[in-house]
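README: folding subset

This subset contains proteins for which both the sequence and a predicted structure token string are available. Records are stored as plain text. Below is the entry for MLO-like protein (440 residues), shown exactly as it appears on disk.
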Amino acid sequence: MGGGGGGGGSIEGPRELDQTPTWAVSTVCGVIILISIILELMIHKVGSVFEKKKKKALYEALQKIKNELMVLGFISLLLTFGQNYIASLCVASKYGNAMSFCGPYDGPSGDTKKVKDTDHMQRHLLSLQRRVLAGGAPAECKKGYVPLISLNALHQVHIFIFFLAVFHVIYSAITMMLGRAKIRGWKVWEEEVVNDHEMMDDPSRFRLTHETSFVREHVNTWARNRFSFYVMCFFRQMLRSVRKSDYLTMRHGFISVHLAPGMKFNFQKYIKRSLEDDFKVVVGISPALWAFVMIFLLVDVHGWYVTAVITMVPPVLTLAIGTKLQAIISDMALEIQERHAVIQGMPLVNVSDRHFWFARPALVLHIIHFILFQNAFEITYFFWIWYEFGLRSCFHHHFYLIIIRVALGVGVQFLCSYITLPLYALVTQAYGINDEAIGV
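--- output ---
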């Protein structure tokens, strides 16, 4: 950057390590090491808290996050070590100029506007500075060939990996906090069961099945037709996903099957532990999800709009799963009504694998895992583009669509973490479907 005084305004190039002051090298290394140690101590402290409180599932989820951060760090290390070799590779121009993120650049008078505005011009100059600071010049390719990828582009990939690591931790924490907040609201119902013997469904009272509050709340004129039945379940997941009668009925069903009569049991804490087991599954990044990242980056081509279609997948799947879980609860109420029997206390419900898609409860958790990962990845991708290229760059040529995509991402994160995942934990664990047996 700028030369020192007395040098006639000369410009100094980047200095090599042997010309750098030792105090500068020592200071930079010391700061990086200090930050790493602090982060390691924080993670260790959180893990110690989980072990002390016997949160085995959360501790295992934390270890998963650490392993995934290590993988991201190893990927970054490979990029750093091999960046000069990667940048020296050349490909034919017809391949090197095809399928770009922002289309071909035709100069100031061309169709694309990515270098027209001042803001992006400044970012473009900063990118050139980064390339110089990286110590590399553009690859020299023979005529008809272009570099596979530039050093500056590799630097931007490094930043993207950093964003993935940071946002993965943030979204994992948000998912768990929202889920626990939802289940914490059920604590009031659990305390009422333990402390109040004059509940809405008196266990000493004999009634017909259709007179129970659980059946009354789920069986109505909408349930007579399967289409209107699913419409009712669709809206119920957003308005009030779990009602008091649902919780009490499922609690009664679990205790009747798995515990001895009169035995004290905190069902709300059990569901909270079940949520932690599910969280341990959805926090991981499997090879299939890494493959999705590669496919997403591959098809994010200027003018294709494939990623806009992919963005619609998480909200559609989230609403479909919520509707299905609500339908399972309502089907239980319909089956109880069809018995036309006299019962004492609350009705005894029974759910099995046949109530789930393809008789596989694990499939629902797999889909939730994919939804949370894709949603987190897309929002991470948005913030990375904002940081590297600006909010109104060529990546966001339809800005209003980007705003809609971000709003959908925030909505899906809330809906899936606060409603769908706790509802899944309740429906499966309430009847003893063991998530630990799921081979995820």
